[in-house]
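hey so u asked for the seq, here:
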Amino acid sequence: MNLSKKKKIVLALCLTFVPLAQSQEIHMSEVKAPIAKKVPHNLEKHGDVRVDNYYWLNDKENPEVISYLEAEKAFYDASTAHTKEFQDDLFNEMKSRIKEDDTSVPYKQNGYWYITRYEIGKEYPIYARKKETLDAPEEIMFNGNEMAKGHEFFSIGGIAISPDNKLAAFGVDTVSRRQYTISIKNLETGEIYEDKIENTTGGSVWADDNRTLFYTKKDEVTLRSDQILKHKFGTSAEDDQLVFHETDDTFGTYVYKSKSKKYIIIGSYSTLTSEYQFLRADNPDGELKMFSPRERGVEYGISHYGDHFYVLTNKDGATNFKLMKTDENNTSSDSWKEFIPHRDDVLLEDIDIFKDYYVISERTNGLNRVQINRWDGANSYYLPFESETYTAGVGRNPDFDTEILRYGYNSMTTPSSIIDFNMRTKEKEVKKEQEVLGGKFHKDNYKEKRIWATARDGVKVPMSVVYHKDTPLNENTPVLQYAYGSYGHTIDPYFSTVRLSLLDRGFVYVIAHIRGGEYLGRPWYEDGKLLKKKNTFTDFVDCSKHLVQEGYTSSEHLYAMGGSAGGLLMGAIINMAPELYNGIIAAVPFVDVVTTMLDDSIPLTTGEYDEWGNPNDKTYYEYMKSYSPYDQVTAQDYPNLLVTTGLHDSQVQYFEPAKWVAKLRELRANHNLLMMDINMDTGHGGASGRFESLKEVAKEYAFLLDLEGKAK
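ran it, structure tokens below
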């Protein structure tokens, strides 16, 4: 960050010295924290008036706002200057474990093998392909390192190859607001055509004519994916034809092609409801046909095979989902026939369709299961997974006419593997095992297990735990507890080379599988949203208490981390039980729940009503306010806190964490660390390069290890 232009303003904003934890005074005796000015702004709803003294920070076009954010960044930099060398050491250590010239496992599609690879010292991937055999000459389609030159942020996504293999549509975002510009490249000549389609999701679908491209456009203000258009190759985007407009602002829309390649499918989605329309891929100018009209609370997904569609749905109260079947010419829900029934103890997650087989992905008692079935009913069996806690899942399988299933496997102590499994012979071939370089990693040096805490309402909550075998478990052991807990998104126990930098320094790492995710099935999610959202927070707190009570750690050495909706979790737990934690990392945290959910101009807000509730309803308003971290900040002691955000974040606007930090600094009763690291160049996902992102992790780990006196 260049502070020279605003040096005087920044220094003026750094007015007040904030005493720090005793262990930090030696490093920071001259550091002053910025104190945001208070400009009372009344927010009234349902007869209730909330006074937001920091509402003015919402306007990033205001130079004073930018200056304040830069002052926060300057304060963070100064406050952590004593760990800068250690951050560099951590970064180099993490980087040294990664195979820099790494290559993906090739997959075959429509006559070509596709490969993603990295080169030593380079940040971005190279996308290449080889015709028919892996011995063929490599064709480089996109070199992300060349394309990223001159950009602080760069992301390429949604690469779509035309059926004749000659053209590639691709999306590029150089701002980090997930607004991609789609371009088209001739893969034979290398020419990038003048076709430019702005403000899209980046993804697109080619029709069979190799000329018509379907894509999703976003609302300019809310960034909601609300329109499907079709573009004719070689014409101006201004002439693109609107195919579908999703007018319900609680829904988004997207487009894809069925694996059978027969249909182009347009989906509409909200948290609770699904709807699909489709048309023949060989008739892109034909009329859309409704699959089955939306019914509130009914979710479904469709897969095409032969002359039928297979429908994964929660219809008729199938909470954990069931699989149904319907003729492709008669697709309304009253024609669906049961194919795999609903099961109370098994979450049906997905189906993958092949010519002779279909593969079912399930979750039982939190663990993944993969079932192989022949269409003719001759054979059915599960892939064998024997570990107590692991992550396994079906990978990318674009080929329809194959007996090879590609899947992935890893655990918290086992690096990830990509495996090709012959569904007929049951033979498997490990195509790739994640390499951990440096010669220091040995799987047997680490222990993993699953433990269960009892929540305050009697429910058993699982946790996945990993630590070095030489780490003693006692009240002096540092523990980092992580969770997400929203949208039914499950954080499975996974391997991380980066995490080794904590484990090798005596940390225990814990993933708490709290309600709000789907680890224990769909009811686990339903019990952690809307008017039951507080179960997410109390589950996390009760897991923390369990770790202390069972002698894994103590409150002096317990840390917690979460991002986005998990950052909301962090904000809630430090209001509810601040005494339990020594330090908290809240990444891009969603903390001003009520204000954001009342502002339908903010990206994502209207689509979130089914997750959090609509505060225009007084019942939801009052419930949200009762846990909203920003609204519930009080004059109490708070743990040491590191908050991260990005100026261009489209998911959680920068001003939420900025206002939260300002209010905490005003009201807290103690003087623990309180810092906000704002990246003025990026958005929700942070830095875009594979190594630049490690620098952000190094900052987070340095914060934790410094508090433990291990920053050396």
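The chain has 14 helices and 39 strands. The first strand starts at residue 16 and ends at 17.
lmk if thats what u needed
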